[in-house]
Design a protein that fits this description.
CATH class: Alpha Beta
Shape: elongated
Number of domains: 1
Radius of gyration: 13 Å
CATH superfamily: K homology (KH) domain
Number of helices: 3
Helix content: 40-55%
Strand order of the largest sheet: 1-2-3
Order of helices and strands: HEEHHEEE
Largest sheet: 3 strands, mixed
Number of strands: 5
Strand content: 25-35%
Structural class: alpha+beta
Distance between the termini: 39 Å
CATH topology: GMP Synthetase, Chain A, domain 3
Length: 100
């Protein structure tokens, strides 16, 4: 896969993630998604209104877990590892850890 194809795939992932969040969250106008590219991983950083954070995470993390699964599967098909980070929440070993 060429570098331009990887850039296009990352942008498509960003657009799809934005679309999902805009349909899902009450304060959709305050949703911002940016990404950074590491050696082997693309990190999508989601910023949203603090009142939308509960909707984004969902009961027992099911909403964000589902979104992460979809985006990861979609990007893996293109040979890209993807991680979604949300404010105040770290994701490790299927556990959500809250930080300040």
């Amino acid at each position: 896969m060429s570098e331009q194809e990887k850039v296009d795939a990352r942008e498509t992932g960003k657009r799809i993630l934005c679309s999902i969040l805009n349909e899902m969250l009450d304060h959709a106008e305050q949703v911002a998604v940016n990404y950074s590219v590491g050696d082997r991983t693309t990190i999508y950083k989601v910023n949203c209104h603090p009142q939308s954070l509960g909707q984004l995470i969902g009961a027992k993390g099911k909403n964000i877990g589902g979104i992460r699964a979809v985006i990861s599967a979609m990007m893996a098909r293109k040979g890209i590892r993807a991680i979604i980070e949300i404010p105040y929440v770290a994701h490790s070993n299927n556990r959500m850890e809250f930080s300040e």
